[in-house]
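Per reviewer request, we include the raw input and output of the structure prediction for the construct analysed in the revised manuscript.
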Amino acid sequence: MPYCKYGMNMTNCHIKRQVHRSTLDSLFL
């Protein structure tokens, strides 16, 4: 989960991972 690597807490990381799942998959996978 890229957001975790940016120093965000696990809650924000988990939420944004779900909200922006498609975007993250396109950018980081």
